[in-house]
Amino acid sequence: MRGGMTPCPTPIRSRRWLRRLRDDRRGAVIVEFAICSAAFMALLLACAQTVLIFFAQQGLQTAAEGAARYILTGQATRTGMNRADFLTYTCSKLPPFLDCAKVMIDVRKASSFAGVDASAPTITYNIAGNPSNNWQYDAGGSGDIMILRVMYAWQVQWGPLNLDFSNAGAGKRLLIGTMVFKSEPYTL
Known about the structure:
Layout: H1 11-23, H2 28-72, H3 75-78, H4 83-92, E1 103-110, E2 145-155, E3 172-182
Antiparallel strand pairs: 1-2, 2-3
Helix pairs in contact: 2-4
């Protein structure tokens, strides 16, 4: 035969050829990996994205705890700290991988612990894609019940199989570090 072509198998040869093909295991691993690799890679990417979000959330919560301590002890009130100063102080508590430009702070007084609204706020965006909410800053006084929310718009990536971790629109996940506390009795 020319060109390396094999003749058409006869029925007996055909059965032997199918049996040999069925019993040949030399390429089975690569074929099995090719079948499973898409799902495996999707799972790895989903795990990596989840770990990064959790890591950023924990860093933000730690910064919120440090910032809340400044209000809790009355230092923010004693020094006459305004919103911009408190934001700068809070940013000094952030881990280095979080950008201070994306941090939003909301500090409010509450009449009682039952009256504290700790629900996630709705973020509104301007044309440039930046949050346009007007957050409050009220450092309160001695013995006041306070809620501090340190929020961060974390950019998330779409994963395979339409995996989407965004909860704040525009491909962003709103991370929130919340502290509810009663200020210590202090004098000015």
